[in-house]
């Protein structure tokens, strides 16, 4: 994996190019496509092609794919071929950013892996054996990321110490594993909201010989799912900034989770390069269409349109006026509300098509703004949406639709 910074500005983020193996260059800030069980949630590969025909970085998660490991051990073609999305790049992570990761289950030498069937425990050696079966283009190092803004100092320190122990093994095994010869390892940075712990975690990664890893994954700020949409910027941004100041410029920084569009922009302004589409998924799963504006206009916009709202049953307009996605060009709000009423799976499918289209457009607008040195202006536009107050982008669980089926059979349904 190669990463080249194209431009960098103190207050306006950075533009880069990521090249994974022989792939096309992926422009950063980049949006990874979150998957569940190896597929884009609600969408077939053909449906996804109608959203985007550009090369993507697929975010695959062990917590939704662990059962495929045995079969994959016999697979000799790229991992993206196995999941039916050939030609795309793959990054294997541990946790599903779309669903809340339960707390606990950490032990001295094992990390809990919460799957659809319950909890499993993995040692660093077992983890690396499993990753080798997947042979992804990029993968994250094993870490204890079970921390959030409320974690105690003791829990945070344990997460750092365990991650160091796990990573000592991962670094050693990475070079030996034949099936990982072409894979890039991402160094996990943990330590909750504690500056001392974060520095310690960064120091451990930076002590490794040159070439041991190709980028960073910043973990342990939240426990995934909707919780990431409620993080306080005042709490999160200083600690992220503390980390980024200590990282080299020439390695990409990934930050998984359903951060709000506004928080995503603030993280980009500080130098985070890669995010995922879990926010777009969480909105669709809760029957919300993203309607915020990222192009300068003078109209007031809301963060979402709630398709379960009875008021829209006679609105024969698209989800978002001017949107060119398949859902907006062919269907009305009234029809999608009807799909909700009748529990048709086509409802979340159309919402996912719109939300992904909208979020990919948002990231393209972010890159253009950075190139024009206008990121602060875009942030202000997204913050206010031409109203007088900051827009609330948090996603609350929609009690009308949350069910095992609506949540894409995530393990959260079983855990609640
Ligand atoms: Zn649309």
TrEMBL record:
Top-level taxon of origin: Eukaryota
GO cellular component term of the entry, any: cytoplasm
Start and end residues of each tRNA-guanine(15) transglycosylase-like domain: 12-383
Cofactor info, note text: Binds 1 zinc ion per subunit.
Gene3D superfamilies: Queuine tRNA-ribosyltransferase-like
Subcellular location per the Swiss-Prot or TrEMBL entry: Cytoplasm
One of the record's GO molecular function terms: metal ion binding
Biological process (GO), any one: tRNA modification
UniProt binding sites for Zn(2+): 323, 325, 328, 354
InterPro entries to which the protein is assigned, alphabetical: QTRTD1, Queuine_tRNA-ribosyltrfase, TGT-like_sf, tRNA_ribo_trans-like
Keyword Cytoplasm: yes
Keyword flag Cytoplasm: yes
Keywords tagged on the record: Cytoplasm, Metal-binding, tRNA processing, Zinc
Cofactor section: Zn(2+)
Function description: Non-catalytic subunit of the queuine tRNA-ribosyltransferase (TGT) that catalyzes the base-exchange of a guanine (G) residue with queuine (Q) at position 34 (anticodon wobble position) in tRNAs with GU(N) anticodons (tRNA-Asp, -Asn, -His and -Tyr), resulting in the hypermodified nucleoside queuosine (7-(((4,5-cis-dihydroxy-2-cyclopenten-1-yl)amino)methyl)-7-deazaguanosine).
Family in the record: Belongs to the queuine tRNA-ribosyltransferase family. QTRT2 subfamily.
Quaternary structure note: Heterodimer of a catalytic subunit and an accessory subunit.
NCBIfam families assigned to the protein according to its UniProt record, in alphabetical order: tgt_general
Name assigned to this protein: Queuine tRNA-ribosyltransferase accessory subunit 2
Originating organism: Drosophila albomicans (Fruit fly)
Organism lineage: Eukaryota, Metazoa, Ecdysozoa, Arthropoda, Hexapoda
Gene designation per UniProt: LOC117571491
């Amino acid at each position: 994996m190669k990463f080249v910074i194209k431009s960098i500005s103190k207050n306006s983020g950075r533009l880069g190019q990521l090249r994974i193996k022989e792939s096309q260059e992926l422009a950063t800030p980049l949006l990874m496509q979150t998957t569940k069980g190896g597929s884009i949630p609600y969408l077939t590969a053909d449906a996804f092609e109608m959203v985007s025909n550009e090369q993507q970085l697929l975010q695959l998660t062990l917590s939704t794919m662990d059962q495929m490991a045995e079969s994959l051990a016999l697979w000799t073609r790229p991992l993206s071929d196995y999941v039916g999305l050939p030609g795309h790049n793959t990054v294997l992570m541990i946790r599903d950013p779309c669903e809340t990761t339960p707390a606990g289950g950490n032990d001295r030498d094992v990390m809990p892996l919460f799957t659809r069937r319950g909890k499993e425990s993995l040692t660093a050696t077992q983890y690396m054996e499993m990753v080798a079966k997947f042979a992804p283009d990029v993968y994250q190092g094993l870490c204890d990321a079970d921390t959030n803004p409320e974690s105690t100092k003791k829990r945070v320190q344990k997460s750092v110490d365990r991650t160091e122990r796990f990573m000592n093994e991962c670094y050693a095994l990475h070079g030996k594993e034949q099936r990982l010869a072409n894979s890039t390892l991402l160094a996990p940075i943990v330590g909750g909201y504690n500056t001392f712990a974060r520095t310690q975690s960064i120091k451990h990664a930076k002590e490794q010989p040159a070439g041991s890893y190709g980028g960073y994954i910043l973990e342990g700020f939240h426990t995934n799912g909707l919780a990431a949409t409620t993080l306080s910027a005042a709490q999160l941004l200083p600690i992220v900034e503390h980390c980024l100041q200590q990282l080299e410029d020439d390695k990409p920084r990934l930050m998984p989770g359903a951060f709000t569009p506004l928080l995503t922009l603030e993280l980009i302004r500080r130098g985070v390069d890669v995010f995922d589409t879990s926010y777009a998924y969480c909105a669709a799963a809760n029957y919300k269409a993203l309607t915020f504006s990222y192009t300068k206009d003078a109209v007031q916009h809301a963060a979402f349109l709630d398709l379960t709202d009875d008021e829209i049953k006679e609105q024969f307009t698209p989800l978002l006026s001017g949107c060119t996605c398949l859902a907006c060009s062919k269907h009305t709000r009234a029809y999608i509300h009807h799909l909700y009423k009748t529990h048709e799976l086509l409802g979340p499918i159309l919402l996912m098509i719109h939300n992904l289209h909208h979020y990919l457009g948002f990231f393209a607008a972010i890159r253009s703004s950075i190139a024009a040195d206008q990121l602060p202006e875009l942030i202000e536009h997204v913050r206010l949406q031409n109203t007088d107050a900051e827009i609330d982008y948090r996603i609350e669980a929609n009690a009308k639709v949350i069910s095992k089926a609506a949540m894409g059979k995530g393990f959260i349904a079983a855990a609640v």
